[in-house]
């Protein structure tokens, strides 16, 4: 990244908007790739797990093209494990927090993955590793039933009692170790993604880029709304929700913690829409989500009033993430559909309010 005068101005602006010093802001923008992308050595990971746990681990297979640090660990002496060797930028304390959440969920018989061993966190090549049990599973059944299942799991999660052991802030996407916590961190991460490529934006795209910046700056972060234990990413089936032998299970709890429960539900509601020929509200799916969720939780009037605004948090994050990725790779960004049309957010929020208040 160049250090010309224009970029220095961007760094100073980013520092002002995020409350950082100049050097912190510079690190925030320049270190994005190293903090987000990580691909550990599979053979070395196997050796580490053998030595750490005394298991006969024989193969480490990547499970996702998006999460290059997540492996299935096959063993000769027992069932498979999952090992997540997180990016080095993520502190061990954060991974210990994941383990604490999973212990809490097991205590409450919540349908989540389980820790593989009591001492499930270890250090490996500068990374913290979490091991959980591998679940033989199939994807969710599809269609409206997917939304009903995920809404039921969110409702059950948000209704769990407060516990100090799982009181860390949560709900943000969790891709960037510097931007983990409540949903506001997604908006701050979005600013970092955009500021990191500000000097690459061409004149023809500048007006739309500035509108996006303003939209991120003014977004409702959900602060002040009722809180619960959040998952943070449940919409992303099958990466975060699967069907095991005993029924649906929520997995991948990196983004979990306490935050405004509406952010979790708003992201799921955002995903209910029809995709073609244009983005439009699917009232049947909305009603299914509301019916399943309200078995466990009733939203307040303020939550319903702020739903449309809060629904923008994660789509804004995704657009900013993709915008930086594409400009960095020198290709045009064409995923504006995450935010368009604006009427979709309005009509989906209205349908949700009708379903809750009807």
UniProtKB/TrEMBL annotation:
What is an example of a GO molecular function annotated in this UniProt entry?
kinase activity
Annotated Aminoglycoside phosphotransferase domain ranges read 71-277
Establish whether keyword Kinase is in the entry: yes
Entry keyword set: Kinase, Transferase
Query: What is the protein's name according to its record?
Result: Ser/Thr protein kinase RdoA (MazF antagonist)
Instruction: Tell me what organism the protein belongs to.
Output: Kribbella aluminosa
